[in-house]
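TL;DR need structure tokens for one chain.
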Amino acid sequence: MIAETLSVGTELLLGQIVDTDAVFLAQMLSRLGITLYFRTTVGDNPGRIQEALRLALSRADLVFTVGGLGPTMDDLTKEMAADVLGVPLVEDVAHAEWLRGLARERGWAEPPASFQKQALVPRSGRGLPNPNGTALGALFEKDGKIVICLPGPPNELVPMAEQSVEPYLREKTSGERQVIRSRTLRIIGAGESLVEDRVRDLMQGSNPTVAPYAKTGEVHLRVTARAASDEEAEALIAPMEGALRERLGDLVYGIDEETLEYAVVHLLILLGRTLAAAESCTGGLLAQRLTSIPDASRVFEEGFVTYSNAAKTKYLGVPAETLARHGAVSPEVARAMAAGAREAAGSDLAASVTGIAGPGGGTQEKPVGTVHIGLAWDGGVISEHHQFLGGRADVRWRSAQAALALVRRFLLNPDDTQFAPGEDG
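>> reply
TL;DR here they are.
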């Protein structure tokens, strides 16, 4: 079965709201083993809604419409679906009476027709109960095609989909049902093009498929398999995951929802090491990410947010002459911050971040996005130079990401030549 989702609402096209409904439906369809080929968005225009519906029905067996079921003049989705399919709408008597009772409670002598239209359902199909709203959903069936009209508010769509739509589709596809399962490998330390070069031949298969995705500061490889059961899907995914790990080695830091901070905290626990953090441009983001992981208290000693030069000297012991000679955004200060944090916290390791997150503050010599990451341990201290693109939030996130990646590389291979003390990479 091929599916398409059609989200209705001019506010979606204007970027005023994010279409979380389409994401929810995509995840539900994936669980059911139903292939979603297209996601379409259209404004509140009757002609364009009909045009989009006709196109969707020409290429899909199952079409979801989202939004446009309410009582206002531009809520026309159900009517447009009925017109395209040639299926008349009839009143659900029980729901219509409930709406009239609700109108009386609101002090209306007679509810407007636009309010009562929320009780309309297709003659060849059925209405879908709405436990959290006033508009019934609608399920049309005609000539082997299915159109399901759902409300736009997520607090109405989700229970309607879970209670009425998912059981219906599960039964409808029971004879042909397959499962679709995915596993995502999370990669740090290599860009999308380098990752793709290493695994290009593995990306040519059709089941499982392998697809790269560039994320902020990292790359994801998603392995997706289609099979008759979870066990068969896993049997397809496992060898491909093994082949990818063999090609990429330590660049793979985790799978699925395992974040980089999760990987670092669990490595610290495994190795019995402790960590401190000294931050300037990230303003505590590094410490926040680390402490978001359960059991981080076993390994994270202390965090210092030293935004001003005076704070760097007061709390981390960064020499005033170093700051004056090299500036706060420099490899020398990054190393001094890391060394000072390690000494102050009494930790095995300390990471530091100093940089220019923007949008102002950059110079020709040190443009916005210039960041230095420091790492101190009992054998020395090093720093890395980075030049990040993006806005302030991007630079801060990438800076924390780079600090976590440096800590992880050291924990995995402390004898690597890159950890020769005093170097700025």
